[in-house]
Amino acid sequence: MNEQPTSLPAPAPLALERSAQLLAQLRAALHAGGGWLPFDAYMQQALYAPGLGYYTGQVGQFGDFGSDSDFVTAPELSPLFGRTIAAQVARVLQQAALDSVVEFGAGSGQLAVQVLGELDRLGCAPRQYAIVEVSGALKHRQRDTLQRAVPHLADRVQWWSRLPERFDAVVLGNEVLDAMPVKLLSKHPGGWMERGVTQEGDDLVFADRPTTLQPPDPQAQALPPGSVTEIHPHALAFIRTLAERLRRGVALFIDYGFPQHEYYHPQRHMGTLRAHYRHRALDDVLLWPGLADITAHVDFTAVALAAQDAGLDVLGYTSQANFLMNCGLLDLVAEEFAAGPPPVAPSSAAALCQATAAPGGSHYLRQTAAVNKLLGESEMGELFKVIALGRGVDAHALHGFARGDRTHTL
Ligand SMILES: C[S@@+](CC[C@H](N)C(=O)[O-])C[C@H]1O[C@@H](n2cnc3c(N)ncnc32)[C@H](O)[C@@H]1O
User: Fold this and answer.
1) How far, in Å, from the CA of 151 to the mean position of ligand 1?
2) Cα-to-centroid distance, 171 and ligand 1 (Å)
């Protein structure tokens, strides 16, 4: 097994046991593949092997700092994220007379709770909120979260095991595209080779093979030998399928990434692939298969082109900060502070004090910190982007892109 860096907190013994089982499966797959697995096949197993993958084998990975979680997503940071997204969803539902929302990769279910709850508050709860989730473990967690948080809306939620041939809806996906397997390319003096995984003693290590695959941006040809980058055939196949089946509606994907001219820029010559473990980004993506998240940034130019080729319009592309501001995040913050903190059982003076919404109170500080993180240029505000792909919907309904649309940069 690959060696543990001394600076990392060790996984629990049961988790290590599960990782060892997954490693045995990976070794069997390597053997069946003649001793080499393309990286996307490795990533698919590490994240989604039934019962053992990062998303399919454990359920504790999303959450706040301080817990045993590995990373925090926007809906886990603050309910204001989902409530702001809901303002955009409401506009499209109303203007296009749609009655369905479909969410891909719903994680813990928090975004579904926030969007459904806010749509209900705005008087436009959809007839149906469908979730498409590859992880059985997460489906259970989503069901529990929704049942607890919005019991009166839970009967509107259903889980689709596959996408219908044709559907009309507003589609949402937060940090889903970055969790789809990528292929790795490594530059050698003779050109690009495909990077895969092989076994050396007990360890999994990278090994490169000849390939006809190339990065999509011509600028990548100038990258020096030793460079590594990714291409995204799985995410693009996903976008094509969605584009074929979305008869009328808008899909909003929120994720970290860039247009191609930034993605394949010489400054990014070591690519964007990383593992996430206990709030640390690791370069060693082969460490503890199944116990660390593995992600790569999204190539938004490729997403836009794949959608367009399959008949969808690109209706907007901007930073998360622009999108959330355009959709009224700051108005919600003001409303929230004016209304005061959520009710807590006043079991002690400390609990009351903790909940205070007065400047300096912990509710106020938590919300302010979360909003800073969602909007901050050096936090999620600029690295994360929002893209809207659609068909048969008036682009004027997309007020999230009213100021600062960057579609022309794709
Ligand atoms: C990084 S998590 C994000 C979870 C949640 N959206 C959030 O923001 O907290 C990625 C999610 O996408 C799911 N996922 C990955 N590929 C998927 C696919 N092709 N279809 C549906 N869900 C997928 C994972 O199981 C997981 O729930």
Assistant:
1) 23
2) 13
